[in-house]
Design a protein that fits this description.
By secondary structure, the chain is of the alpha+beta class. It has six domains: 150 residues, Agglutinin, subunit A (Orthogonal Prism), CATH 2.90.10.10; 134 residues, Agglutinin, subunit A (Orthogonal Prism); 135 residues, no CATH class; 91 residues, Phosphorylase Kinase, domain 1; 230 residues, Transferase(Phosphotransferase), domain 1 (Orthogonal Bundle); 61 residues, no CATH class. It contains 13 helices and 53 strands. The chain is elongated, with a radius of gyration of 38 Å. It starts with a helix and ends with a strand. The site of one 2-acetamido-2-deoxy-beta-D-glucopyranose has 3 residues, from loops. The site of one 2-acetamido-2-deoxy-beta-D-glucopyranose (NAG) has 7 residues, from loops. Pfam families: B_lectin, PAN_2, PK_Tyr_Ser-Thr, S_locus_glycop. Keywords: ATP-binding, Disulfide bond, Glycoprotein, Kinase, Membrane, Nucleotide-binding, Phosphoprotein, Receptor, Serine/threonine-protein kinase, Signal, Transferase, Transmembrane, Transmembrane helix. InterPro entries: Bulb-type_lectin_dom (IPR001480), Bulb-type_lectin_dom_sf (IPR036426), Kinase-like_dom_sf (IPR011009), Pan_app (IPR003609), Prot_kinase_dom (IPR000719), S_locus_glycoprot_dom (IPR000858), Ser-Thr/Tyr_kinase_cat_dom (IPR001245), Ser/Thr_kinase_AS (IPR008271).
Length: 838
């Protein structure tokens, strides 16, 4: 017993004596202690050691930290990279306020730590994770400085790689100059916080490699990064800081990430058995990881030769260079974007392009994301910001897409903006009308509050709303149980969703839930034309250049409808109330509730249901139910004369005669004093020839016989001062208060009148109308319209909550396919709209 005690005593005093004799076994430096070039301190579990080393053939001494347990000296941190000691007489000590200083033999500071706070009793301690810390000896939690905040070329477990957004501290790696020279090298590896953050390797200021943005699982450019037995990892971001970090699963394993002197980001692990560092992974795997190798809109595909390809619909910008293997000039579009009619093409399996010019929001859905991108002409692509699960969040790119490549696995999806004509048939399902959730719209309109109501549209109230992203919208809400409204809703969805023109109001999406049917449009801050033109004060804001711009804009919008759009549409309800004004007072035609489309060589149609607005309806339509592009031209003519005069045709009175506005304009014209028609308010600002041209065009458009009226293309040319202008003939209805057959007593803006005397019902352009639903079995509750471009319009059925396909049934022209589809489960239904209850 006694003997055993003696042994213990002996060994413990032996241990104690070593501790005293050499500094090497302590892990702290206290005030007034100095560490010379031959001294070291060691962390408590002997993982790391702090001391001096010389490298290469130089006589330079560097203060550094290395692995204690690893035989190959592996430096993980260097203090005085910029100023090595040139002899072995320097010392490291901690000064009283808490600053660690390295002095050279002449007492000059070679390196020092810094901190903004000071303490009475500072100590320096080397921790077992390799972190050298200056802290308060009395309050160990109070850390003044730590080497982990100033990494050199090695990223260790537990370090934060990234930025503190409050203090501005930026923790990044700077390579060694060469493998035996720790002075500052050419390369940095740093978290770039612009757009969606990425880790970027630069040589000087030139980007060499980027990790791509974090996607919830990994950085987009690190397809190999996946859960593993060695370390865990994550990217963390909040208001105060954003950083990447990894931590050891097993603390006995050594792993480190290094920025090599040649700019490679490499992870090594220590192989105990063979006593060497093994390359575990490398961020740069092949040539396609060289930043921008293929230039803007180039796609790098490593197992092809050459690796660079232009994305579909793009061509090499500098063909000769491209063919000479210099791809850096990239590619440009074969067909320019026009902003309004663009769509997206989906690419899968890629590394997302450079996100320095991007924007993201983690709470938006992909549908909202698409809408946001579509609405901003400089948005070139979008995707989910987080790919976990079904995907969530929104990431959008502004400016050219650069540094995109393909991966064999773990690549991502991106939707790239393309001109409509560049989107191939099989990609067109990407074109669908976005569906909004009712909760989103309800929230945006303050639960459809009265305060948010901005008007009454063709089939229900219109509300102003603000989406969470701040986007202003106008929401049309279909009045409940209105069959008429239901048709108009369907019409709007069918037509306007496919129409994209700067003078047509833009439909952003729709919402169909339970009893609600909503259409969501871009918000027009300056209401509609009638708000200005017929108001004495507000009409003063519309000087001649503005009015002319409005006339020309409407003409262009109408020309697009009649001729340039694929659908060839007749609006049928053109009037000042349906001309909305954006914040620059540009006109946008709205309300397609009763519009009709013409296919093939059809030019006119007949209806027994004349729908339109009193004062704007052409005689042949009012009396015989015949409508054609020329009935729109007539309405346009009325509009022009109203804009010029500031008077409503419908309410026009003149003390000297009983003519309506058209008759009045005609009278002045034939009496040779046409300018007297014009609102006196614009006199100061007008350009007489433009005014005369507009009056002339207005009168040509309202002529009695439709064959005399010009087409909209002739109108736009005449307004632009081109082409001959025939003499107008007498306008229709010029002496009458209202056209025959139209119920003039109606106070409502929209009038409907039956022309039952017509012998045969005319062929409506949409078959779904005339078929009067009889083709659907009685169990069917809903008609479903799908806006897929492939199939045009698709009609299916919803019975209860399950949707049943009935296959295709009919093709209406080549662009519209009327059909019934069978679906199982609502997952597939995202692009389908329930438009009409039977
Ligand atoms: C350090 O030295 C200064 C004077 O040289 C002395 O006042 C101070 O008490 C010393 N501190 C410690 C912790 O020994
Ligand atoms: C100590 O540092 C100063 C300033 O950097 C330098 O001028 C001087 O030559 C150095 N002395 C030695 C012996 O390296
Ligand atoms: C180096 O230290 C000496 C003495 O401490 C001082 O006179 C000299 O100015 C210092 N030189 C530099 C470059 O700091
Ligand atoms: C510490 O030094 C670094 C660079 O030497 C500087 O950027 C930083 O602002 C300093 N911090 C404090 C608290 O002085
Ligand atoms: C570092 O940059 C210098 C000057 O720009 C250059 O001479 C040297 O070759 C570069 N080193 C490496 C490893 O790229
Ligand atoms: C489009 O996005 C860019 C970049 O965020 C922004 O500067 C611009 O104002 C946006 N344009 C529109 C019309 O919202
Ligand atoms: C409605 O808006 C508020 C803030 O305006 C937000 O907190 C809430 O999550 C939103 N609800 C929905 C369903 O969007
Ligand atoms: C929104 O309106 C509906 C009916 O108009 C009502 O039932 C609901 O409680 C309202 N919700 C809120 C949050 O006001
Ligand atoms: C992101 O979107 C959410 C919901 O759409 C919104 O609440 C939030 O304000 C948005 N954040 C930014 C920075 O726009
Ligand atoms: C049109 O709207 C913009 C933005 O809301 C506003 O600044 C401008 O004054 C409006 N113009 C008129 C004529 O009201
Ligand atoms: C044009 O219409 C006529 C009959 O009205 C028809 O016979 C002809 O095939 C049509 N042409 C085209 C190209 O659709
Ligand atoms: C519409 O359906 C009814 C029966 O539901 C039928 O009598 C009628 O002929 C159908 N067609 C038209 C064009 O009304």
């Amino acid at each position: 017993m006694g003997c055993l005690f003696a042994t213990i005593l002996h060994s413990s005093s032996f241990f104690f004596s070593i501790l005293i004799l050499s500094n090497a076994m302590t892990d702290t430096i206290t005030a007034n202690q100095t560490i010379g070039v031959t001294d070291t301190i060691v962390s408590s579990q002997k993982n790391f050691e702090l001391g001096f080393f010389t490298s290469g053939n130089s006589n330079n001494f560097y203060l550094a930290i290395w692995y204690k347990k690893i035989s190959t000296r592996t430096i993980v941190w260097v203090a005085n990279r910029a100023r090595p000691l040139t002899d072995s007489l320097g010392v490291l000590k901690i000064t009283n306020p808490g600053i660690l200083v390295l002095l050279n033999s002449t007492g000059n500071v070679s390196w020092s730590s810094n901190s903004s706070t000071t303490v009475q009793n500072p100590v320096t301690q080397l921790f077992d994770n390799g972190n050298l810390v200056v802290r308060d000896g009395d309050q160990p939690q109070n850390i003044l400085w730590q080497s982990f905040d100033y990494p050199t070329a090695t990223f260790l477990p537990g370090m934060k790689f990234g930025k503190n957004l409050v203090s501005g501290l930026d923790r990044y790696l700077t390579s060694w100059r060469s493998s035996d020279n720790p002075s500052l090298g050419n390369f940095t590896y740093r978290l770039d916080p612009s757009g969606s953050p990425q880790l970027i390797v630069r040589s000087g200021t030139t980007v060499k490699f980027r990790s791509g943005p974090w996607n919830g699982l990994r950085f987009s450019g690190f397809p190999m990064l996946s859960p593993n037995p060695v370390y865990t990892y994550g990217f963390f971001s909040n208001k105060e800081e954003m950083y990447y970090q990894f931590n050891l699963v097993n603390s006995l394993v050594f792993t480190r990430l290094v920025l090599s002197p040649t700019g490679l980001v490499q992870r090594f692990t220590w192989a105990e058995r063979t006593n060497e560092w093994v390359l575990y992974s490398s961020a740069q795997t092949d040539n396609c990881d060289s930043y921008g190798l293929c230039g803007a809109y180039g796609n790098c595909i490593i197992n092809r030769s050459p690796p660079c390809w232009c994305l579909d619909g793009f061509e090499p910008r500098f063909l000769r260079d491209w063919e000479g293997a210099d791809w850096s000039g990239g590619c440009h579009r074969a067909v320019q974007l026009d902003c309004w009619s663009d769509g997206f093409v989906k690419y899968s399996g890629v590394k997302l392009p450079d996100t320095r010019e991007s924007w993201f929001n983690e709470s938006m859905s992909l549908v909202e994301c698409r809408t946001l991108c579509l609405m901003n002409c400089s948005c070139m692509g979008y995707t989910s910001s987080d790919i976990r699960g079904e995907g969530s969040g929104c990431l959008v790119w502004f400016g050219d897409l650069i540094d995109l490549r393909e991966f064999n696995e773990n690549g991502q999806i991106i939707y790239i903006r393309m001109a409509a004509s560049e989107i191939e048939e099989n990609q067109k399902e990407e074109f669908e009308l976005p569906l909004f959730e009712l909760a989103t719209i309800s929230n945006a309109t303050k639960n459809f509050s009265q305060d948010n109501k901005i008007g009454e549209g063709g089939f229900g109230p219109v509300y102003k709303g603000i989406l969470m992203e701040g986007q202003e919208i106008a929401v049309k809400r279909l009045s409940e149980n209105s069959r008429q409204g239901s048709d108009e809703f369907k019409n709007e969805v069918i037509y306007i969703a496919k129409l994209q023109h700067r003078n047509l109001v833009k439909l952003l999406g729709c919402c169909i839930e339970v009893e609600e049917k909503l259409l969501i449009y871009e918000y027009m801050s300056n209401k509609s034309l009638d708000y200005f033109i017929f108001d004495q004060k507000r009409s003063m804001l519309l000087d001649w250049p503005k009015r002319f711009n409005i006339i020309v804009g409407i003409a262009r919008g109408l020309l697009y409808l009649h001729q340039d759009s694929r659908l060839r549409i007749i609006h049928r309800d053109l009037k000042v109330d349906n001309i909305l004004l954006d914040n620059e007072m540009n006109p946008k035609i709205s309300d397609f509730g009763i519009a009709r489309s013409f296919g093939g060589n059809e030019t006119e149609a007949k209806t027994n249901k004349v729908v339109g607005t009193h004062g704007y309806i052409s005689p042949e339509y009012a009396v015989h139910g015949i409508y054609s592009v020329k009935s729109d031209v007539f309405s346009f003519g009325v509009l022009v004369l109203e804009i010029l005069s500031g008077k409503r045709n419908r309410e026009f009175h003149h003390p000297d005669h009983h003519l309506n506005l058209l008759g009045h304009a005609w009278k002045l014209y034939i009496e040779g004093r046409p300018l007297e028609l014009v609102d006196s308010l614009v006199r100061g600002s007008w350009c007489e020839c433009e005014v005369l041209r507009s009056i002339h065009v207005g009168l040509l458009c309202v002529q009695q016989y439709r064959e005399n009226r010009p087409s909209m293309s002739a109108v736009t040319m005449m307004l632009g001062g081109e082409g001959a202008m025939p003499q107008p003939k007498q306008p229709a209805f010029f002496g009458e208060e209202s056209p025959q057959g139209v119920d003039s007593s109606s106070e409502s803006k929209n009038i409907m009148c039956s022309a039952n005397e017509l012998e045969a019902p005319p062929p409506p352009p949409l078959n779904s109308e005339q078929d009067n639903d009889s083709m659907f079995p009685s169990t069917v509750e809903w008609i479903v319209i799908c806006m897929g471009y492939v199939s045009g319009i698709v009609v299916g059925m919803v019975i209860g909550h399950s949707i049943t396909t009935r296959g295709y049934c009919e093709t209406v022209e080549e662009r519209q396919l009327l059909c019934m589809l069978e679906f199982h489960g609502l997952g597939a239904v995202i692009s389908f709209l329930i438009v009409s209850r039977l």
